[in-house]
Amino acid sequence: MSRFRNVLRVLAAVLVGTAIFGAPTQAQAAFAIQYSIDGGTFITINDGDSVAGLKITASSYTDPTVSLLDLHVTGTFIPSSETHTIVIQATVTDLTTAPAPQTLTTKFTGGTSTGTATFTGQSWVDDANNLFGIPGTFTTGSIVPGNGITPDFVGSFTGNVPYSLTTQITIATEGRKEVNLGADIDNVVTPTPAPAGIVLVLSGLPLLGIARLRRRNLAAPVA
After folding, report:
1. Rounded mean pLDDT of 172-195?
2. For the stretch 8-38, what's the b/e string if a residue is b when 16 or more beta carbons lie within 10 angstroms of its beta carbon?
3. DSSP structure class, residue 175
4. Which backbone phi and psi does 11 adopt, to 5 degrees?
5. Is residue 147 in a domain?
6. Per-residue DSSP letters for 49-117?
7. CA gap 167, 67 in Å, rounded
8. How would you list the strands of the sheet with 102-114, edge to edge?
């Protein structure tokens, strides 16, 4: 379901960009995912890998009209102590969406069906174009989960092409009961103001059932 959502986003962006600006040339962007548990060293993983019972997926896309970075975590985490903190990050370099100023729109959802956990999200833009460019030159600040339809953050920044984008989900568990959880953070970068066609397509994606698919997938255990 998450893959279906991401494919729809990319197709929508490409179609709108092609219609407005002609066929886009995708940048040779670097993309990476990493995680840390309880303050340990960050470990690099691949899209679709499972860590401590949690499946982690991410995707990215960039062209001059729109850039996307999504991160999704779902599964069952079995605590070995009373508290744990899990940090998952995804990053992409060489974003080409311009001209400045650009707008970053972020949606964040997170929840549990069993056990207790709190969720926070955050994203950073880095003008130095570094992988995992934190603290970067612009940030959403800490975000708490929203409804998955209304953006949880909208802000403008000045990005000098190429720049990078990093997004993060932090999960803090409490107690020794297994935690069945799901979390999803979606980032969209557009020029300011965004071309009308892109705004129309992005705002219409929930009508295609994407928001409903996210809620259905939220807190679903890994098979």
Report:
1. 91
2. bbbebbbebbeeeeeebeebebebbbbbebe
3. S
4. -60, -40
5. yes
6. -EETTEEEEEEEEE-SS-EEEEEEEEEEE--SSSEEEEEEEEEEEEE---SSSEEEEEEEEEEEEESEE
7. 13
8. 50-51, 54-62, 67-77, 179-191, 102-114, 153-157
Domain count, the chain: 1
Enter the tokens of residue 32: 């990476």
Does any domain span residue 223? no
Position 120: which residue type?
A: T
Report which DSSP code applies to 208: G
In angstroms, the CA 111 to CA 96 distance is 33
The CA distance from 39 to 154, in Å, is: 29
Q: At what angle do helices 2-21 and 196-204 cross, to 10 degrees?
A: 160
The span from the first CA to the last CA of the chain, in angstroms, equals 14
Which of 206, 195, 202 lies closest to 18 in space, CA to CA?
Answer: 195
Q: Which two tokens stand for residue 30?
A: 């670097």
Band (149; pLDDT cuts 50, 70, 90): confident
Is residue 186 assigned to a domain?
yes
The pTM of the full predicted model, rounded to 2 decimals, is 0.79
For 33, the domain range is 2-217
Q: Are 18 and 24 in contact (CB under 8 A)?
A: yes
Q: Is residue 198 part of a domain?
A: yes
